[in-house]
């Protein structure tokens, strides 16, 4: 299998985990103020099937990353991990109603330029 498929797997499962956690926590509401209420909220969240799938996704992303590390130098593979925040931004704006700002677009462009420079030079 091409080493970059491992990186793609890492990215897909990382992004899925972040998006599903944010989506589900948005549905569950804000963290309550009191200690006992916080504990109950977090217990409820920890046993939520969607949140569990996010944790499983994070573990799966780690397995893909381990596979990538067996075939690539970390200095070649790690810049691609910068795509995770970029993908989370795009998906967050499109599906979660997150804010779309010029500053975030500038950051995305800088991330992409950084990946291009790091991988090609």
TrEMBL record:
Provide the species name. Flavobacterium cyanobacteriorum
Keyword Oxidoreductase: yes or no?
Answer: no
- Gene3D superfamilies this protein is in? 1.10.3730.20
Q: Which Pfam families match?
A: EamA (PF00892)
**EamA domain segment(s):** 50-119
Q: What is this protein called?
A: EamA domain-containing protein
Keywords of the record: Cell inner membrane, Cell membrane, Lipid A biosynthesis, Lipid biosynthesis, Lipid metabolism, Lipopolysaccharide biosynthesis, Membrane, Transmembrane, Transmembrane helix
The cellular location(s) given in this protein's UniProt record come to: Cell membrane
Where do transmembrane segments lie in this chain? Answer: 6-25, 46-66, 86-119
Recorded hits in PANTHER family, A to Z, give: 4-AMINO-4-DEOXY-L-ARABINOSE-PHOSPHOUNDECAPRENOL FLIPPASE SUBUNIT ARNF-RELATED, SMR FAMILY PROTON-DEPENDENT DRUG EFFLUX TRANSPORTER SUGE
Q: How does it sit in the membrane?
A: Multi-pass membrane protein
In Gene Ontology terms, what is one molecular function of this protein? transmembrane transporter activity
- GO biological process terms held by the UniProt record: lipid A biosynthetic process; lipopolysaccharide biosynthetic process
UniProt KW Membrane keyword: yes
Any one Gene Ontology cellular component term annotated for this protein: plasma membrane
Q: Which residues form the signal peptide?
A: none
The record, for InterPro entries, names: EamA_dom, EmrE-like, Small_drug/metabolite_transptr
